[in-house]
Amino acid sequence: MGESNELNVSQYIHVDDVRRRCLFTGVDVPGKKRGEHVIPRWLVKDYALQDGGIQLGEPEALARILEFTAPADGVANQCFGLLEQRIKEDQENFSDDELYLWLLKLSSGMLWNHRRLAENAKHPQSPFQFDVRLEGIVSKEFQGAYAKWRNGSFSRNGSLTKLPSRVGSLMILHIFGATSLDFGHATREGIFPYVLMAVGRPGHPLLVASFFDAGRKWEENAVRSVWARNEAAITTEAPFVRAALAAALYTMELTPLVSSEEQGQRLMDDIAYAAGLRLFTGEKGVKFFRSR
User: Are 99 and 87 in contact (CB under 8 A)?
Assistant: First the structure.
């Protein structure tokens, strides 16, 4: 990563009240009302998730889907809602850029809520604390993408792929984290973010977006070919698919960044936690992810 692309501490720390920051524009939203449902209401209704929860790393750390809302400017919310409604009606005829933007919105909203809940230390089911710079990076990424989409100039920075899937129920997977980068500066600190967002709906391809996959490794034909031959492409069990995606994320994007066995172990543990999985070591020291 070049000097101009370094991610430093001060650039991404929010000095404003994040609880009032519009998900789409970043501007202040008056009052305390959170107007945007991060998981679209039609998705909640179609799959009877009204009383469902979102796992936040650990099975006991749950948040009700209907409570996953974020502040939103009314005009921006309505505009993006039209895109989400079109995705509901005909996902197959959407450009990869638009599907990528939709998944980026889900990720930004989920990270916003994860941060809000994690900062409530008194809550017995609050999720783990994470580097808040990551939420800032993803929110700025989405806000910039949204602005370009509104003026017709958006094209994705990361990868979007549609993988064969037979999942028997709605699957929403959000894996996120960051690893430190050594720039050789005693006074500079950088992080490399990784964020994977996947949505699987019965009868539809599995949508997978990786927002910091600049080389678009997920879009390579080899990835689709390997996936198509894997049990993950034919199983109806969502936990198996989640584990396969977690393993692929680590192998394709993070392995080149690992400089020590300790760092690799820490990254795999973080991925497993975010995905609601456990990390196991099998015969001959082979590590793999499995449902909790």
Answer: yes
